[in-house]
Design goal:
A hairpin with a 6-residue loop joins strand 12 and strand 13. The protein folds into 5 domains: 201 residues, Periplasmic binding protein-like II (D-Maltodextrin-Binding Protein, domain 2, 3-Layer(aba) Sandwich), CATH 3.40.190; 90 residues, D-Maltodextrin-Binding Protein, domain 2, CATH 3.40.190; 107 residues, PAS domain (Beta-Lactamase); 111 residues; 164 residues, Histidine kinase-like ATPase, C-terminal domain (Heat Shock Protein 90). The strands form 6 sheets. A 5-stranded mixed β-sheet has the order 2-1-3-8-4, sandwiched between helices. Strands 10-9-13-12-11 form a 5-stranded antiparallel β-sheet, sandwiched between helices. Helix 19 runs antiparallel to helix 20. By secondary structure, it is α+β, with helices and mostly antiparallel strands.
């Protein structure tokens, strides 16, 4: 009892110290935090809004207020000043943080969100400009104390050009694209592409000068705080940083959704929500370029780049000193390690003491446990021997059974098959293990599917049906299946055991007898109808005609042989016609598959283009690191990890397209909207390349029963045709609209485009095989033909062309229940 009490006491003491250490890190939960922006609310700060909306700050125990730089009286708040004077905890800045640090402000950079500067300089595209020296001949708009002007000075300094700062405009001066259009200035500065957006609105063509092109590589928007806060409460700073980065990752991966919500949440007087949404969507692309995500981690900080920014400011005479970059850049791990060292020795002593006591306790218990373990080992061996004998009996019965037996998962994946079943189907064990049993079964009718559904829902324990199996050589065999569920001896999960009796020969014999009987009855009826009438007389064996006397038995035999020859000839002609139709259908499917494969390869090329560009950028960065002797093991490991992620993404792209083309044999329940979204993801790069906007109109998702993969191919063909039609249009508003809705027990999808429509003489031909309006090089004439074949023949639906003024609408309708009602109606 004393030993147990001592052990419990030490454990509680150790746990108390451990919890005390961790409680320090969470002491500041539910703290009010203020973030000061450097401009008005817009997509430039999207990650912080998302972190607040999605509850990422709440999850870290932070109550965050995000303040605009614009006040109610139209004055502009300076983020560095607000943080230094205690009205904000965090702010957004760049080289202005270095300038304040030079004045003794003691600020700290937490994360660099924009890996490139958002500063740009604009001139009309026809302005005479061959190099930066030409700027000295142009009328440049410059303001006093303007942060945008610093990088212009740095560009000129790099080229050995002395900047003339005598004719500087007041800081309050505003610039716009109209200043260039009217010739007021030859060059104006701008931030985050605002001038470009305004120029596009007025259709003004601009030339853009970026500082990075002339060796000036400043960081853009960066998150900063006071150094005192970072040192006294590093946990709060780290939580805010982590939640903000999480918000930025979500915003960059869901840009359209984020831009629309920003436009709705933050209204600006004089601008409609639609105008704000257009501007934020434009700004979203600029922000994505500046963050370099996902090539560079969100918030990544390279101390050398901040040092180079400081050196540039020194050259320009803007600052006169160099800060301590070890404390200027926030390093959470270093701060925490320093703080934990004070408790490290106490914790080590306690751990050593606990270890010694546990060691003594272990030695004492070891002797006792050895006796118990020996007894348990003997019992375990006996149980294992019993299991082995039972398993051997099961395997003998399984292998030598006269019935074909399969063990599958609940979803139909084959786990085991005995020799009899393999002989019946002509497969080897390696061919079928891990494969779906439904790939080897001819699809059943609705009654059988309902029976199986009841079995899977455990409403019945077993069932018995007859179904056809596809042999490896393509021939069909008929089997009588008895299906039941059992528990797997290895995993204790439920599996399905199917026992199959080959009744192919029996069915063939029954069919032969049936056909013979039918043929015999037909011949007898024809003979009876063709014989002359005679008086009933049992002794009559011949009859007289004008041509002579004929025997009844002879006439019947000749007529029977003649009819049999005719019947055999008809069967031969029918078989030849069926074989010829199968060859034609196989050729069409083969051609359509190659056409689809060509489109798939083109889409894979689109999907690979961006990862390949990112790989090129990583290699360039690696080369720069080697040149500047910055190639440390940590950097190499980081770069290799990013390269592997990009390569893995490219590999996943191939798998996505391979699974899309993989045929499916069985009908399944599938979501119409998810099915369409998969097609849109595959065509995403093609849509972006041709600047096509896709909108979906569906209130509730609908579920259909049928061949999901074939339905995807049909939708893919229609949307691909719409993209091809829109690619030939020159207007900027290229749209594809998708509408999903139910009509009674039918599911309809309308796909509309504004691609100009179809010529009247071609309307009746678009679903014909080999008909194409794209020319020999771009069209196969199989896409819409195969779509109609899939929907109407395989899914009992219909495809309709609904032409409208600016383009085409194709309506695809399928039955919700898989087609049983429509098929019944057609019969």
């Amino acid at each position: 009892m004393k030993k147990k009490f001592l052990i419990k006491t030490l454990l509680l003491l150790t746990a108390f110290v451990f919890l005390k250490i961790n409680c320090i890190a969470y002491a500041q939960n539910n703290k009010k935090v203020v973030l000061q922006l450097r401009w008005n609310h817009q997509y430039q700060f999207a990650g912080y809004y998302v972190a607040k909306w999605m509850g990422f700050y709440d999850a870290e125990g932070l109550d965050v207020e995000i303040k605009s730089a614009f006040t109610s009286n139209n004055s502009i708040l300076v983020a560095t000043k607000e943080v230094l004077e205690g009205r904000a905890d965090f702010g957004i800045g760049s080289d202005d943080v270095l300038m304040e640090e030079n004045k003794g402000a003691n600020l700290c950079i937490v994360a660099s969100l924009f890996q490139r500067s958002a500063v740009e300089y604009y001139m009309k595209s026809d302005t005479p400009y061959r190099g930066i020296v030409d700027l000295t001949k142009l009328n440049i708009a410059r303001r006093k104390n303007d942060l945008l002007d610093i990088e212009l000075q740095a560009m000129l300094e790099n080229e050995g050009i002395k900047s003339d700062n005598t004719e500087m405009l007041p800081y309050s001066t505003e610039f716009s694209a109209a200043d260039l259009a009217t010739g007021k200035y030859d060059v104006i500065p701008g931030y985050l592409g605002t001038i470009t957006y305004l120029a596009q609105q007025s259709k003004l063509s601009l030339r853009i000068i970026k500082p990075i092109d002339y060796g000036i590589d400043f960081y853009g928007d960066s998150l900063f705080t006071k150094r005192d806060l970072a040192l006294t409460n590093p946990d709060l700073v780290e939580k805010f940083k982590k939640a903000s980065i999480k918000g930025w990752e979500y915003a960059l991966e869901h840009p359209v959704e984020t831009a629309k919500r920003i436009s709705t949440e933050f209204k600006i007087e004089g601008q409609s929500v639609k105008e704000l949404e257009a501007y934020n969507l434009f700004q979203e692309k600029k922000v994505a370029e500046l963050t370099l995500y996902p090539v560079v981690e969100i918030g990544n900080i390279n101390p050398n780049r901040w040092m180079k920014m400081q050196e540039t400011l020194l050259k320009l005479g803007i600052v006169n000193g160099t800060p301590d970059f070890n404390s200027f850049i926030f390093n959470y791990d270093k701060i925490i390690n320093d703080r934990n060292k004070r408790l490290e020795m106490i914790f080590i002593v306690l751990m050593i003491g606990s270890f010694c006591i546990f060691l003594i306790y272990f030695i004492v218990r070891l002797t006792t446990n050895n006796v118990i373990l020996k007894k348990e080992n003997n019992e375990r061996k006996k149980a294992e021997e019993k299991i082995i004998r039972s398993t051997q009996r099961y395997e003998t019965m399984f292998s030598s059974a006269l019935l074909g037996i399969t063990i599958t998962t609940i979803k139909g994946i084959i786990l085991q098959a005995n020799k009899r079943w393999l002989d019946m189907t002509g497969y080897n064990e390696e061919d079928v293990i891990g494969r779906s049993i439904f790939e080897l079964i001819i699809p059943e009718d609705d009654n059988v599917l309902k029976l199986k559904d009841r079995f899977l829902k455990e409403e019945i324990e077993s069932y018995e049906i007859e179904q056809q199996y596809i042999r490896k050589d393509g021939r069909l065999i008929c089997g009588k299946l008895f299906m039941t569920s059992i528990f797997d001896q290895d995993s204790d999960n439920k599996v399905n055991m199917g026992m199959v009796l080959d009744i192919t020969n029996t069915k063939t014999e029954e069919e032969t007898v049936r056909r013979s009987e039918s043929r015999f009855r037909r011949i007898i009826n024809e003979i009876a109808s063709g014989m002359p009438e005679v008086e009933p007389n049992d002794s009559i064996s011949e009859y007289k005609t004008s041509e002579g006397v004929y025997s009844l038995s002879t006439e019947k035999s000749q007529l029977s042989l003649k009819l049999e020859k005719i019947n055999l000839e008809l069967e031969r002609m029918f078989k030849n016609e069926m074989d010829e139709n199968k060859k034609k259908e196989a050729l069409l499917i083969y051609q359509a598959r190659f056409a689809a494969m060509g489109e798939m390869i083109g889409n894979i090329a689109h999907q690979w283009r961006q990862p390949l560009n990112n790989l090129g950028l990583i290699i360039s960065n690696l080369e720069d690191a080697s040149i500047y002797d910055e190639l440390e093991p940590e950097v190499v490991n980081n770069v290799v990890g990013k390269c592997r992620k990009l390569i893995s993404r490219m590999s996943d792209t191939i798998d996505d397209f391979r699974y899309f083309l993989k045929p499916q044999n069985g009908k399944t329940n599938f979501s119409i909207c998810e099915n369409i979204n998969v097609v849109l993801e595959l065509l995403d790069e093609n849509l972006k390349f041709n600047k096509v906007n896709v909108t979906m109109d569906t209130k509730n998702d609908v579920v259909a029963f049928g061949y999901a993969n074939q339905y995807s191919q049909a939708i893919f063909n229609i949307i691909s045709n719409s993209i091809d039609a829109l690619a030939e249009q020159f207007h900027s508003n290229k749209e594809i609209g998708i509408k999903v809705y139910k009509e009674a027990d039918m599911i309809s999808v309308e796909i509309s485009d504004n691609g100009g429509g179809i010529k009247e003489e071609n309307i009746d031909k678009i679903f014909d095989v080999y008909f194409s309006t794209k020319g020999d090089k771009n069209g196969t004439g199989l896409g819409l033909y195969m779509t109609k074949l899939i929907i109407e023949n395989n899914m009992s639906g219909r495809v309709e062309l609904l032409e409208h003024g600016t383009g085409v609408t194709i309506k695809v309708t399928i039955p919700e229940n898989g087609g049983s009602k429509i098929e019944g109606a057609r019969k």
